[in-house]
Each structure stands twice: as C-alpha cells, then as structure tokens.
Batch of 3 targets.
Target 1
Amino acid sequence: MRGQSGTRHGSAPVAVHVTTTSDDAVDWAAAEASIRGLPLRLVHPVDATTEALGAVASRARAVDRDLPVEISRVSGPTLPALLRESRTAALLVLGAPAAPGLTRHRSGRTPLRLAASGACPVTVVRALARGTDQRSAPRVVVGIDGAPSTGPALGFAVRAARGRGLPLTVVHAWSADAPADLEGVCAPRVVTEAGALRVVDRALAPWRENLLDLPVTADLRHGDAASALVAASGGAALVVLGVPGRRRLTGTLRSVGRRVLAGVAGPVAVIGPEGHGAEESRRGLRSASSR
C-alpha cells in the first residue's frame, strides 16, 4: 500500500495514541497514513520499553513496509499531552474498546474535547470484535444539521470518500414542525421532508465541483441526530461527525457526540472548527482531483 501524494517526510503525520488496547487503532492509522502519503507518529507513554516501541512500529510497517514511523514519548495527563500532539499532526487517532457502551473516557469526553479544542481532526477506532464479520459496506457516512460545523465535517467526509474510492452517504435527521397556531396544526410531513432535503442540498452546494465523480446519497431520517447517524452507520467504513468549538459545545451537543461514539461500531472521525476548515478542505480536494 502506498500513499497517493508520494511526499511523506516533512509532512504533518497521522498520530496514534498507543495503549494496551490500541492494536486496531494502530492498523487503521497506518493505513490512513499510507493512503494520504504521510508519516505515522506513535504516541507512547514515556515509560514504554524499547521492545514495546519496536513491536508497535513493526505492526504499523506490516500495513506498509515503506511507511515512515516516528516515536513521540509523552508524560502527564492524557488530554493536555494529546492537545499538544494535535498542533503538529494532520490527524489524531484514538483506540476504544470493542464492546458497546464505552467507558466515559473513551465514549466522548476526550475525543470531543480534543476535536473542539485541538488543531486537527480526531478519529476514534473501536477494537474489532474477534470471530465476527469484520467487512465494511463500501461507503463513508457523514451527519449534517445545517449548522456551521457541517462544513468542515462534510469537507473531511468528501475527501475521505474520494481518497478511498467510496460513495458518500449524507445523513440528516428531521422532526415534525411545531404547531403553527393554537389549534395544533403542523406542516404536512411531505413539506417537512422537503425542507430537510433543502438543508442537505445547501450543505452540498459548495462541494458540487468535487462531487461530479463521487456517488452521493441523501439519507433523511425522522428522529434525533444521534439515533439517525447510529442507525445509518451499520457496516460503514468511516462515520464523520462535526462538532463546534469548545465555547459552543453545549450539553446537548456533547450528548449527541457521546451517543454516536458509543453506538457506532466502526471508526468515527470527529471534526472540530480548527481541525479541518472548509477552505483548506477545498484546496486539498482541488489538488487531489488535479493529480
């Protein structure tokens, strides 16, 4: 497996936080670095042994034997250390347990705070349940709600789908309009659904030139955002979730993010406002499409 760009050294790396349960995260991060043509950075505890460092580096090179691998030894609390790593990384990858109902640390608090306050996107990779069907349906899934955070998340998803040669599914949850008068008259369902489709169309409009050869499906679901995205995620190769900055990350948005991270079985990319800006995404896509 070889990266598309061919320029690895001197580029911002894909960084993966190495723990005792991060084997699948390391595999995923190595493959992502290879796809992007970037080096891989293994973020280890400062007390990691030479043998442990060598074993993880060998695991990463089993994915791509030519993959440049860097080592970063970190100490102290996890969140500040990973925030520092985000400043020089293109992507930060975290591992998570295989079973549903993740611990609080992995289910949302750390990934969401990293995405909202860090300087790069964050991907959470749940360990694969052994002895089960591990095949993924060939698509990238992204949730949108029309908020400003939709732009960076959608840009990341478009880039991920193009890089993998996969179709894109855009999920938008909608609910019935509130009654417009005292008699409790709501807009007809077909009108509300049409409005939801317009939200998707507006979100995709800035990316039309990059979607000409990319199959895109709008998946409109009645209900709340977290349930809709989890329900649409079955077998997806990657699920993308946008979050606003730290000051706008309300309790409701934290709940949505944690429910998605706890309910999706595959990798989930959490994109904050600084992690992957829309303009940066478009420039990168234009460059990729011109190659």
Target 2
Amino acid sequence: MKHMKTILAVIFFTLLTAQVQAQITGEALYTTTINMHMGLPNNEKGQRMKEWIPEFQEFNTKLIFSTTQTLYKNIHEDVPPDLDEEQKKSYWMKRRMAPPNDVIFCDLEEGTTVATKEFMDKTFLIKDTLNLASWKITGEQQEFAGMNCLKASYIPEEGDTTTIDVWFTPEIPISSGPEGFGGLPGLIVHLNMNEGQKIIALTSLIQREIEKGEIEEPTKGKVMTLEEFEEMRKKKMEERKKQWEGKGGYRGGKR
C-alpha cells in the first residue's frame, strides 16, 4: 500500500508540474494488430473461415493531441497497382476494418466524444460521453517507447467479460489514448484487449505545435447515440450472417 501511495504521489506531482508548463501538443502513432481467428467458432465452419481469413490483420492509426482535445484516425496508404489476389483481399479487409474516414474527436474538458463511423457504405455521426473506463492501477512499471509507464486494468461492469490491460505514461500528461480510451493520468501507449485479440501499440511520438484545423469536431453523418449505432450494427451483421449461411458460408475464399 505504501508503494502504491508513492507511485500515485509521483503521478500527481508530474501532472501538477506539467500544468504550469507550456501546453503539450503533438501526435502519437500506433499500430493495431487484430487476431482474426480468436473468437471464431470451434467447428467445421470455423475451420473454413480460418482458411479464408488471415490470422492477423494490422493497420496504423494516429492520435493528434493537445491538453484539451484529441483526434484519433486511421492511416491509409495508396493501394499499389500490382497486387496479386491474396494481397488485394488483405487490402480490402483492412479497409473494411479501418475505414479511412473514421475519426474519434474527444473534448477532454467537456468529457464528450464525437465519432464518424463508416458502416455498409454509410456514414454515421456518433455522439457520446468520453470513454472513461474504470481502471485499477496495478503498480507494475515498464518502459515502452523509451518512456516510463504504469499498468492499469479495466474494471468491467457486471456481465461484461471484456478484459483490457493498458500501459500509460505520466510523462505525457494527456488523459487520452487510442480508440477514445482515457481517464488515466497519462497517455495510453499500449493496450491489450481480450488477451491478445486486439493489441494497440505506440510506435512513435512527436511533440510539436498543432496547426489550425488538425483537431476538428466531425459534423457529417447520420446522428446516432453509441447504443443506437451498436444495436443497428448488430442487427445488420446478423442479417448478413444469415445470408452467408443461406449461401453455404465461406467457400474457398469466395463469399
């Protein structure tokens, strides 16, 4: 307990010191790795799906931050013209998982988020409160990207089976991180969801001035709450699943 109090004292001293310094602004680059095979059914259908779906999918994201606002978005490169069929399939899947126009805007002072989400070729504007998950700071320390970091574990609500472990650094006193996660006394630099199903890792961090227009609240799309969007997406995915099953599921890489 004494050790934990010492750690917390260091955190809050760091934050207090940062507040009297110039505003911290810059960009953090992350790599997201998703294990596509985790969660697939352990049966013949699941095996067929594994033949069509690569085990891992990887894409890059960027968090542009100030002490009061952040903007998180996907990074996409132009598709090379000379790809074979397998490479084209990988690019298609990456684009579906990380649409280039998806962004998450966070107002850290107001505690609100506005996100643009593409789904089934439509754009939605989702307004919600900041994802200030309940965290337990474990006291474990480790270095990530050359910065001293502390570990925190997500405290789920009753009935929630999600597991999330993050590492955050008080050296960058921004209460934010990838995918709208925040609520910790420092920038989240590493996130592990469901024991490796999704890993988001910081690859580089640049402290620089933010130009006008780099962090802007999105305005385009059909307005929905997060609950409405998730319910709609769940319904559409169930409809698509039934359509796939009616066509015999996955067959040699074709839908």
Target 3
Amino acid sequence: MWTPSFSFIAVSIEKLKLKAMKTLLRTTLIALFAFAAISCSNDDENNTQTNTEVTIAAFVATNSDYSSLLAALERAGLATTLDGTDNFTVFAPNNAAFDAFLSANGFASVEEVPVNVLRNILLNHVVTGTVESTQLTTGYINTLAVYGNTTLNLSMFVDTTSGVKLNGVSSVTSADISASNGVIHAVDTVIGLPTVVTFATADSTFGTLVAALTRSDQPDFVSILSTPEGTDPAPFTVFAPTNAAFEDLLTELGVNDLSDIDGATLTATLNTHVIAGANVRAEGLTDGVVSTLGGDIVIDATNSTITDPNGRESNIIVVNVQAANGVVHAIDKVILPEL
C-alpha cells in the first residue's frame, strides 16, 4: 500500500489553498461589481428624483447665487406660489443683477422696495406654463405682471436673433433648468416694468420710429413717453408705424431720407400717433373721431383702420402690446397731420 510522503501532502495542501484563494477572489470581485452596479443605479435614481422633485422655489432657496431673489420672493409673498404644483417659467436674476437694480433705483436692499412694486417686478419675470428655450421665438408674450390696478397682463418682447434677450435689457445666460413645477432660465439683469418706449426700442420693427422720436430737433419724446402710470400725461395709447410704413411714407412724399422731413412736420406727425391720458386696448376702440396730441383721427374699430385728416387709411396690424404706462398697437402706414 502506497503511503504519501510529507512533501507530497504539503504540496497538495498548498494547491488546495491556492484554489480556494482564487475562488474567494473571483467571488469577491463578482460581489464588488454587483455592488457598484447597484450603487450606480441608485445614484441615477437619486439624480432623477432631484430633477423632478425640486420646485422652482426650492431651487432658488438652495442656490446661494439667488439669495437676493429668494429674499425678494419671500418679501413679496411669492415663494409659496413658486413652491406649488402650478407650472411656471421663471427668468431668474442672480445676486449681481439684483445689486445693479437696487443701486440704479436708489435702494440699499430688497427690504426698501415697496412691496406692491417689488411684487409686480417679480411677476414680470414669470410666465404661465413651462416654456423651454427652444419654444421661445421672436415676438411678444405675456408675463404675470399687470397694468396698474387691473388684471391686464404686461407684455414682454422676446428677441431670439442672437441668444435670448428680453425687453432689450436682459439676456438669458443659462437656459432650461428643470423643476418639478416648470423651468428656470437664468438672466443677467432684472427686467423692469416696461414703458411704451421699452417696446419701441427693444423691437427692431420700430427702428425708424425710434430714429424719428430721438432726432435732435425733436422734443424729448423718450422722457415724455416714459412718464409713469398715474402721472400726467400718462397713460398713452400709441399707434406705432413699422419700418416698412416709414419707407412707404418716404416714397409717398418723394424724399430720400427721414432727415428730409422738416422738424415741425415730423413733430406734428409723431404727435398724431399718440393718445394721451388713456390706455385704449383693441377691445376698447370705438368707431368715430379720436383726439391725439397732433390732431383728430377717425377710428373704424370694426375694420381695424385709422383715417388721418388727409383721408389716408392705415391698418392696425398688431394690437394690445401692454406696457406699464400704456398700450401699443402697430400700424402699417404713417398717420399724417393735416397738411
């Protein structure tokens, strides 16, 4: 009978140990990979929950760069609104934007801004529903800010020709920050309440009108038409001729440039496009004679036309661009005073 030697037994034991170690190592690696997979899966789930469960208000509250916005929302009583289930799109100014706004308006802090004013300014950064950046196009949208003591929502001009610019003053710096109740677009400037001048200067469709209003031989139309609501001669109803309307006028008059129109005639012409002391929206226009700063015109509300003292007819092509101190309606022909 064969009896194994001690050396053979020792070698066999070593082989068994090696095999056991390999088995243990393989089992350990499998367990580690399985744990890693589970951990990654959990991380993905947590990220998904973060993106879908954080409200707009919670995002602002947990982001230190929006502490001024948070203080403003709480002071205006809007934090709860943005923490609810209704969907909103918020154009969110950061702390630097608020600092610039407060400094420009002579306030040392958010607490010094009158609550009613602060609330309306904040609402001017909010749009109903979820509007992703890809859904924004050049044109007018309504914010939740209102005109005076009415329920008429203010307009906002969105310019998407190069990025996204709002009312000509504020640019979107970071878009499409998702929240459970809407979306946030970060902006670099607080969007103040717009005047009728704001829309004229922000919308390139009215470039020639702005050139006429600001010509050196004209009254300070910018200051006049920036008069706040409740202060004479505001509010204003402005019939704003497009660039194409001015081009047609130059052809009609047989001149080459706006500079060929004398100062007095230009002043009288521009005044004829403004009704002072009234915010007349399209639904408020009635048939008949209406007095402007430059003379009488005749409104045909049914057909949305304006006839000037010379029998020339202009069509109202865009209505109810609502500002904080009046309303703008775009027209396709320049209204002339009696010549």
